[in-house]
Specification:
The complex is a heterodimer of chains A (285) and B (165). Chain A has 285 residues and is an all-alpha fold. Chain A has ten helices and two strands. In chain B, the strands form two sheets. In chain B, strands 4-7-6-5 form a four-stranded mixed sheet. A three-stranded mixed sheet of chain B has the order 1-2-3. Classes of the chains: A mainly alpha (285), B alpha/beta (165).
Chain lengths: 285, 165
């Protein structure tokens, strides 16, 4: 299915923006460890993770660009007083860097400050395992360009899972300080992590059309099933109970990101991410 | 110098064997398997090359584009290089000659790519220094996106391994 009915454009843009912005902001955050990670291998690993995630983000922004739509959410910030052409407005760079903060659809999880090492690797564990589940599902999307992109991305995500699992075990089997920090990280991470499965606007229509093969609620169930065993075995916080209907959360999710409502920490991050682009949005690189 | 009137697609494939991978110069782009197709318009002296990226975030793609254009300009061709997603590159596309070139540079060639969730890297690589299979993965991430770091327990040397993808 390469042709989309007109009334699914808006919903598809919401989905692609959520996927792209999660990867974009995560990739940017990962790069903050370049040069200062606690081990040389991790300096390299986080730099590589950043490069991978930014590559995936670019792929999703290209899909958006190819949709060739003049959607108001993709418009540039009015205060910036930019004389952007329509062409620029729709380029992957313009979509990534030219939007107002409220145009971003990333989950709040990825916009939080990087914290200590335990926080960063624990966040990466929750993010990468969740991302894997959703990308695996999107390989079956009825929208062929998205299914193709997911099939490319999932091969690389296997290496992210290996990295995430390694650090989960390493800290959990480490000394009291490592265990304590890891536990504290998971305590604060859970509400944000559930925000990764906040439904995008128009989710029902996307599911009905097969563009989104599973609802976000179904994906969340699958994700929790995939990580329950290691987290319980390592005696880490896992605030869910299961019954015949699946996992039930014992805490409220922190939603808002998928509607463009971000936390205060996003403001500073947004300034940093877009600062170079805003100097001259029409520059040729 | 090849006569412009008799130039063939084979000549272009041969010329592309002179173009090194920007990140691992011991292997050329043809042996790396990133060239999907070559199209030649003799009358217009124009060539179109379809190039497949390795990893999604590979930063070398623009360098490859420039190197291809420069090399084919020596044949008198104006070249358009299109990055394609028509088909996915896989490390299984690396030729036997390419695998030997990687090993010679101290990089263990990739094992078979797999579609399962199992990480293909966990199979011990063959040490490119001493040939031992008594090796272990040190980190899934290395100097470039396509390389991991491994360690040989026999010759006590670290080495790089091309990731199966």
């Amino acid at each position: 299915m390469r042709e989309l009915s007109e009334n699914l454009h808006t919903q598809l843009v919401e989905l692609l923006l959520a996927l792209a912005d999660d990867e974009f902001v995560t990739g940017y955050a990962n790069s903050e460890w370049t040069g200062i990670a606690p081990l040389l291998e991790e300096d390299i690993a986080f730099s590589s993770l950043a490069q991978d995630e930014l590559g995936h983000a670019r792929l999703f922004y290209e899909l958006l660009s190819e949709l060739q739509i003049a959607d108001c959410r993709l418009q540039i910030e009015p205060e910036a007083n930019l004389q952007s052409t329509i062409y620029n407005l729709q380029s992957p760079d313009a979509i990534a860097y030219g939007r107002a903060p409220s145009g971003f659809r990333n989950a709040r999880l990825v916009e939080r400050p990087r914290g200590d090492w335990a926080y960063s690797v624990s966040r990466q564990f929750l993010y990468d395992t969740a991302d894997y589940v959703r990308i695996e599902s999107l390989c079956r999307s009825a929208y062929a360009p998205l299914a193709d992109a997911a099939a490319s991305i999932i091969r690389e995500e296997k290496y992210h899972l290996l990295h995430a699992q390694t650090w989960l075990d390493r800290l959990a089997n480490g000394g009291a300080a490592a265990r304590g920090r890891q536990r504290a990280a998971f305590e604060v991470l859970w509400p944000d992590a559930l925000g990764l499965f906040e439904p995008v606007l128009g989710e029902n229509a996307l599911v009905a059309a097969g563009i989104l093969p599973d609802s976000f609620a179904a994906l969340q169930q699958r994700w929790l099933s995939s990580i329950a065993e290691p987290l319980r075995r390592l005696e880490l916080p896992f605030p869910f109970v299961s019954d015949e209907r699946g996992w039930e959360a014992l805490l409220a999710p922190d939603y808002g990101g998928r509607r463009g409502e971000h936390s205060e920490s996003f403001t500073a991050l947004y300034e940093q991410i877009t600062s170079v682009y805003q100097l001259d949005p029409n520059a040729t690189w | 110098m090849i006569d412009r009137q008799t130039i063939t697609e084979q000549d272009i494939w041969q010329a592309l064997r002179d173009v090194p991978d920007p990140e691992i110069p011991t292997i050329n782009l043809v042996d790396l398997g990133v060239i999907l197709r070559v199209e030649l318009d003799k009358a217009a002296q124009h060539a179109r090359i379809l190039l497949m990226p390795t990893f999604t975030g590979c930063p070398a793609i623009e360098f490859m584009r420039d190197l291809i254009r420069e090399r084919l300009a020596q044949l008198g061709l104006v070249t358009q290089v299109d990055v394609t997603r028509e088909q996915r590159w896989s490390s299984d596309r690396i030729s036997e000659a390419g695998r030997r070139a990687l090993a010679k540079a101290g990089i263990a060639p990739p094992g078979p790519a797999t579609s399962s969730v199992v990480i293909p890297l966990l199979e011990p690589a063959l040490c490119p220094h001493c040939g031992s299979r008594h090796t272990t993965l040190d980190s899934a991430f290395g100097p470039t996106l396509c390389r991991a770091i491994a360690y040989c327990r026999d010759c006590k040397q670290p080495f790089e391994q091309f990731k199966p993808l």
